[in-house]
Structures are given as C-alpha cells and as structure tokens.
Design brief:
Radius of gyration: 27 Å
Distance between the termini: 32 Å
Number of domains: 2
Largest sheet: 5 strands, mixed
Order of helices and strands: HHEEEEEEHEEHEHEEEEEHEEEHHHEEH
Keywords: Hydrolase, Metal-binding
Structural class: alpha+beta
Strand content: 25-35%
Number of strands: 19
CATH topology of the largest domain: Aminopeptidase
Organism: Panicum virgatum
Family: Belongs to the Nudix hydrolase family.
Pfam family, one: Nudix_hydro
Protein name: Nudix hydrolase domain-containing protein
Strand order of the largest sheet: 7-8-9-11-10
Shape: elongated
C-alpha cells in the first residue's frame, strides 16, 4: 500500500507534444564560449524540471545586439548586465523553467542571479516562472520566497515554486488535485472472495473483512496497481478482467480529492501469504458471507460495489477493459478504458 499518485495538472499542462517542444525550446542564457565573429551554437542536452522530458536545445544569448570593436565583433554591454541570469528553458506558454542542474552554489550568488533573472524575464515579456529547488539547495527557499515565489508542490527530493510576472490573474495550473487508489475484487470458481483484515484501520471498520486496496504508484496503470496490491497483501497472483466502477470523493486527505477504482480480477493461484507489516489476516470468504457483513450492508458505497460485482458475475453488467492506443497528443502510448460487448470484441479491440 506504499506510494500514491497525484494527477499532476502542472506537468500535463506543460507537457506538449515532443515535436512542438523541440520547435519551441531554447535556453535563455549566454553560451559558454563564442568565436570572434559569431555567437556559439553549441547544442546542450537539457532536462525540463516541470515536464520531465529530455531534449536537445541551443543556447540563446541574452544580448540586444552586436557592436563593432577595434578588433572586430564583440558582445554589446547588455551581455555583461545579464550575465548572472539563471539558466532557463522556455515553455510552450510564454514562461520559463529554471534549469535545476545549473543553479549557483552559494546563497549570495543565487540571490543576485534570481533578482537579475526576474528583472530580465519581466523586460522580455515572460509570464510564469517555474523554479525547482532540489533538497540539497533548500537554503535557497527563503530567498525565493522573499522575491515573491510561492510554493506549488513538493516531492521527497525537491520543492517546486512558481512566480507569475504579468499584472493579471495567474494562469499557471494548480498543484495536483487527486490521489488515486485501487481495490481488487478477486473471486474464484468456488464463488469465494479474497478478503483481508488490515492491522491499521478506522475504528468503524476495525476487524472487518474487506477487499485488498491501496494507492497506485507513479506511471502505473489502474489494473497493474490492483494486481500488485493483491499480490503484496495476500501473495495471490491475479490477472485483470475489467474495471468495474470508480468512486470520486473530495476533501479526503490534506484537502485533496480521491479517485478509487474497483477492478475485477481472476485468481491465478490460491495460496495466501500475507504482508505481516500491514495485514492482520487474509482468507477466501464465500460470496454470500461477504455480502452479509455489516460493513457491506450498512455502507451504501460498499453495498453498491458488491452488487455491481455480483451483477457482472451474472452477466447483467459489463465493465471497462484496457486498450493500448497511440495519440499525437501523448508523448507515447497510453491506455483507453471502454466497454465492449462479447460479439463486438474482435471488431473494437
């Protein structure tokens, strides 16, 4: 039951197609070296902190133009004035993403560079600024907040801050809004349901027999998360059949919304070996006995979920099956869930 996935609206908003990103991406920084008569065009491989997509980009100098010196061409004065601007990548929406791998090493240098960067980005007409500070740069956080940055989200290894430049309502996407959980309804040929008793649970469900549940991991499908959770908690191997139903609730954990997906799974083994760290006991329980539990009968959601699963077993209901698809709006293949009647499975699969 370890881990959780928050649906990251920020990453989704910044994650345009790879082709578009390659067309638009460019560094807002001076090149490390230049010839005597032209700016450097050395390509760098960068990593976008917000989009998490590697790309190859060309450095773009922060100068207003060239001047002719006594010995030939040289940089205009604007180059020296903006030499401390932080390395950053343009995003698709007129903003910048600061390169977390090229941050200054000291607090004094960072404070000066951040102030110079904001001044430069304002003059350049930029909008949103994404600043990712790794854990080993946590001393930079109060300096960024002092400049007007606000917390956006945090993971165990970094904090993401944002700054909205225009004098108008902020259009940056909000932090991830949901956590995603799954439950596995596993039933064998003897019409027995795989159930568990959790070691740690709310007093209202203490000692009750329930379905194996947990949070899905980052980049994990609903059905693979359900199969994994069942395996971790009970030791039973299963395969995904259908997505039966899902529940949407709000203000569940730290004011976040919650999505809970129920998957119908077919057992591939019978032997139970519990995860003693989280599970008190597990067993195969006759379906009727499971349905007659007070936890199921007295709770509208649990009763409805159980009724739906029973109707599916009686072939009076059909859930959603998983299908791999490719779209130009995605960076790669994704999964589309939809229902297919038995006689249409060959046509629509």
């Amino acid at each position: 039951m370890e881990g959780s996935l928050l649906v990251d609206s920020a990453a989704a908003s910044l994650g345009a197609t790879p082709a578009a990103r390659r067309r638009r991406a460019r560094f807002l920084s001076c090149p490390c070296s230049a010839s005597s008569d032209a700016p450097a065009t050395r390509a760098w491989t960068s990593y976008s902190s917000a989009c998490k997509m590697p790309r190859t980009v060309k450095p773009v100098s922060r100068v207003n133009g060239w001047r002719n010196g006594g010995n030939g061409h040289g940089w205009a004065t604007a180059r020296e004035e903006s030499s401390s601007v932080l390395e950053a990548l343009e995003d698709e929406y007129g903003g910048v993403v600061v390169d977390a791998h090229r941050l200054p090493s000291g607090t004094g240098e960072f404070a000066r560079s951040l102030a110079a960067s904001l001044s430069y980005w304002k003059s350049a007409g930029k909008k949103g600024v994404w600043l990712k500070l790794p854990l080993d740069r946590s001393e930079f956080i109060p300096l960024a907040v002092k400049e007007g940055f606000r917390y956006h989200h945090a993971e165990e290894s970094y904090l993401m801050l944002t700054y909205w430049i225009p004098d108008e309502p902020c259009l940056l996407p909000a932090n991830a809004s949901h956590q995603v959980g799954v439950g596995g309804f596993v039933i064998n040929d003897q019409m027995e349901v795989l159930v568990v008793q959790e070691k740690y649970s709310a007093s209202s469900s203490l000692g009750a027999w329930k379905l194996p549940t947990g949070f899905i991991h980052a980049s994990e499908e609903f059905f693979t998360g359900a199969v994994r959770e069942v395996k971790e908690e009970t030791g039973v191997d299963t395969e995904f059949m259908e997505l039966i139903a899902f529940r949407h609730a709000h203000n569940v954990a730290f004011q976040k919304s919650d999505l809970f997906f129920i998957c119908l799974l077919r057992p591939l083994s019978n032997e139970i070996k519990i995860d003693e760290a989280e599970i008190q006991a597990a067993k195969w329980m006759p379906l009727r006995e499971f349905m007659e539990q007070p936890l199921v009968q007295e709770d509208h959601m649990f009763r409805k979920i159980s009724d739906i699963c029973v109707q599916r077993l009686r072939r009076r209901y059909r859930g959603l099956t998983a299908h791999r698809v490719v779209s130009k709006f995605d960076a790669g293949a994704s999964t589309l869930y939809y229902s297919v009647a038995e006689h249409d499975r060959g046509y629509l699969s």
